[in-house]
Amino acid sequence: MSLHRKLFARIDEMNENNARTRWIGRPFKERGARTPIYVQKAITKAIADTAHNSGLEVTVAFDYGSRAELLRAAQLAMNHGEVTPESISSHLYSPDMPDVDLLIRTSGETRISNFMLWQIPEATVYFTDHAWPDFNAAELDQAISSFQRDKQR
Q: What PROSITE patterns has UniProt attached to this entry (predicted)?
């Protein structure tokens, strides 16, 4: 089963746990967007089906690169005549998303890889050797424990 199908097949579980799906990436209708239609539909459905939840937010990135996001935000801010941190933030792909508290980096990678550079200034970064499809509840518990220890310092 492909990754997007695996993730979005768990909508009932997300609703049971009051979790909300969010998505970041190049807007579907924007010129040059590369997210396939079937993935767009799965993302749109998952967002709609979990929109009422108010707990944990799971943000999924497809067709996303932070440099492209920042360049687009700066261009839009310039077009509106004001380039400030607030105007840049207001033109990000998900302007209403708060800064990231915990960034989980899977697959043994120890770099940020052009990911949410604007949104992670104070984030705790948790590194794991597990690949994303194999990342499970026990590993998530370890990541959260690490985050809690980091915040106590």
A: UPP_SYNTHASE
Q: Note the pTM of the prediction, 2 decimals.
A: 0.77
How many CB atoms lie under 10 A from the CB of residue 20? 19
d(CA 30, CA 150): 39
Rg (CA), the chain: 16
Distance CA 11, CA 17 (A): 10
Cα separations in angstroms, 70 against 6, 20, 120, 152: 30, 25, 13, 32
What span, in angstroms and rounded, lies between the C-alpha atoms of 127 and 4? 22
Environment class of residue 122 by beta-carbon count within 10 Å: exposed (0-12), middle (13-18) or buried (19+)? exposed
